Amino acid sequence: MKKGLFLSILLGLFVTSIFAGAYLDYFHVSSEGENVLLQWKTEEETNLKQFVIERRTPDGSYTDMGVVQASGSNSYYSYVDKSAYKANDLVFIYRLKIVDYDNTYSYSNEVSVSPNISGVKRTWGSIKAMFR
Q1: Nearest-angstrom CA–CA distance, 123 and 100
Q2: Which of 34, 59, 101, 110 is the most exposed place for a label (fewest CB within 10 A)?
């Protein structure tokens, strides 16, 4: 019995360290018109500094999209990606980089979305990007 209790405590410490300073209750991504809405909730936060929102395409590498500062345990967070319509990709994959004050970090699970972007807005975004 003592061995089982020790193993449970050891596993609990290991799981906590995997997610840096936050335990995520959920992490959802949805298409909201021509934007992408990311929402997540934490249960417990310890030494947590911030969340870095990262996005990639199925064949690409991750790019930082924004930063959300930590608010404390049991907090609800959201981030709106207003640049999705500027890309020609049909699927985006997001994850959270969870950063502690000592700059250690870990990643959330990946979630994907296919935004509902009008052809006119997508074309206009591509034309504007050519002249930057």
Answers
A1: 40
A2: 59
Which tokens in the block code for residue 31?
């298409």
Q: What is the DSSP letter of 50?
A: E
pTM of the predicted protein model:
0.72
Strand order in the sheet with 22-32: 22-32, 35-45, 76-81
Of 24, 94, 106, nearest to 54 (Cα)? 94
Paired tokens of 38: 């990311």
pLDDT tens, position by position, 9-53? 434 444 433 456 788 999 999 988 778 999 999 999 999 999 999
Q: Which helix or strand (DSSP H or E) is residue 32 part of? A: strand 22-32
Q: Cα–Cα distance between 28 and 30 in angstroms, integer? A: 7
Q: Where are the alpha helices (DSSP H) in the chain?
A: 2-18, 119-130
Break the chain into its structural domains and give their ranges: 2-130
Contact criterion met (CB below 8 Å) for 29 and 38: yes
Q: What SS3 class is residue 100?
A: strand
Structure letter (DSSP) for residue 87: S
Cβ count within 10 A of residue 20: 22
